[in-house]
Amino acid sequence: MLTPGPQDLRNALARYADARIEDARRSTGSTARAVEDATYTLCVMTGTRQIAEALRLADSMLGVQPLGSSARCGTTGTQQDDSLQSA
C-alpha cells in the first residue's frame, strides 16, 4: 500500500467531516452518497474496511493524539509544575 501524504489525508478527513455534518443537518440521497464516497476514500487511503479504523489510522498517520489520551495541555502535579510553583 502506498502511504498517502499528510495533506491528502487532511483533505479526505475534512471532506468526510463536511459530508457527515451536511447529512446530519439535512439528509438527502445526495448527502448520504457524499458520506459513502468520503468513507470509501478514507478506507482506501488507509487500507482499512471500517470507517472507525480508517479514522484511527489517519489520525495516527498524522500524529494526532486521540481524545482522552494521557497527554494533556496544562497538566498539574508534574515535577516541572511543582518547581515553578515553589520558585
What attributes does this structure have?
globular, mainly alpha, 87 residues, single chain, DUF5133 domain-containing protein, DUF5133
Description:
With 87 residues, this protein is mainly α. The protein has a domain of 57 residues. Helix content is 67%, strand content 0%. The protein has four helices and no strands. Helix 1 crosses helix 3. The longest helix has 20 residues. The protein is globular and about 35 Å long. The C terminus is likely disordered.
Topology record:
Blueprint lengths: L5 H20 L3 H18 L4 H12 L16 H8 L1
Report the span from N to C terminus.
Answer: 53 Å
Name the structural class: mainly alpha
Number of strands: 0
Count of runs of 4 or more consecutive helical residues: 4
Approximate shape: globular
- Tell me the major beta sheet: none
Beta content comes to: under 5%
Oligomer classification: single chain
Spans of at least 5 consecutive residues whose pLDDT stays below 50 are 71-87
Q: N-to-C SSE series?
A: HHHH
* Computed CA radius of gyration, to the nearest angstrom: 18 Å
How much helicity do the residues have? 55-70%
Put the structure in a nutshell.
It comes from Streptomyces clavifer. 67% of the residues lie in helices and 0% in strands.
